[in-house]
Amino acid sequence: MKSSQNEAPVHIVADDRERASEVIKYLRTIPGGSVGVERLAAGDYLADRKIVFERKTLRDLSVSIVDGRLFKQMGALAKTRNKAVLILEGTARDAEGVGVRREAIQGALITISLILGIPVLRSMSPEETARLIVYAARQVQAVGKSGFPRLGYRPSNKKGRQLFILQGLPGVGRERALRLLEMFGSVEAVIRAEREDLLAVEGVGAKTADQIRSALSQKLALYGYGPDPEI
């Protein structure tokens, strides 16, 4: 993998129980990165202190379904403060002889991805796993610099932009966005609003107010805009 001079370095922490893994060997060959080894509370690899990866071969996955470890591990992974990802490594042949039906594996992956909300990435080898870890970290770095774009319609007038941003908040549709804008007058004022102020808006309950405050603790760029005092 070639590293651009403009790319920030990627720091990977590998769990000390992964010392014998070839993934660490391949991570150390990727330019622009560094690898440390320490005990992690959850997962096998932590990229830039932002993304935690659990790496399982198909055989590991099958065995952990049988012995009941899988969902305990995935539950712990889902509770971490970092973005959690499962990398599933290998081919179907690796799971032969374990005695787990294909439907059981598919059901487990559905639970992990759709119910627990943990994305599942596929890899064919430890080398590809190492590349995926670094690719993911690079993508997150790029999003952090440019903001996460919301695709589709982008309004051109001021009020349209205000409503567009507010509707990007959790639990806020057009009606709530209109009420928030009417109450506070600007997106900036909504950002500065305390929980109690949000609760004073018709249709905003405790759950929605908490979700809004949590979302607004992040940069406005997350919604596809940089700071704009007129918004």
Explained architecture:
By secondary structure, the protein is α/β, with parallel strands linked by helices. It has ten helices and six strands; from the N terminus they run βαβββααβαβαααααα. The chain has helices spanning 22-27, 58-67, 70-78, 102-115, 126-146, 158-166, 174-184, 187-192, 195-199, 206-216; strands at 10-15, 33-38, 45-47, 51-57, 83-89, 120-123. A hairpin with a 3-residue loop joins β3 and β4.
Lateral arrangement of strands in the main beta sheet: 2-1-3-4-5-6
- The overall average pLDDT, rounded, is 81
Q: Give the topology string: H per helix, E per strand.
A: EHEEEHHEHEHHHHHH
Can you tell me the overall shape? elongated
What are the key terms here?
single chain, about 230 residues, six-stranded mixed sheet, 10 helices, 6 strands, disordered N terminus, disordered C terminus
Task: Give a nutshell description of this structure.
This protein has helices at residues 22-27, 58-67, 70-78, 102-115, 126-146, 158-166, 174-184, 187-192, 195-199, 206-216; strands at 10-15, 33-38, 45-47, 51-57, 83-89, 120-123. The protein is of the alpha/beta class and 231 residues long. It is elongated, with a radius of gyration of 22 Å.
Question: Secondary-structure map with pairings?
Answer:
Elements (H helix, E strand, L loop, with lengths): L9 E6 L6 H6 L5 E6 L6 E3 L3 E7 H10 L2 H9 L4 E7 L12 H14 L4 E4 L2 H21 L11 H9 L7 H11 L2 H6 L2 H5 L6 H11 L15
Parallel strand pairs: 1-2, 4-5, 5-6
Antiparallel strand pairs: 1-3, 3-4
Helix pairs in contact: 6-7
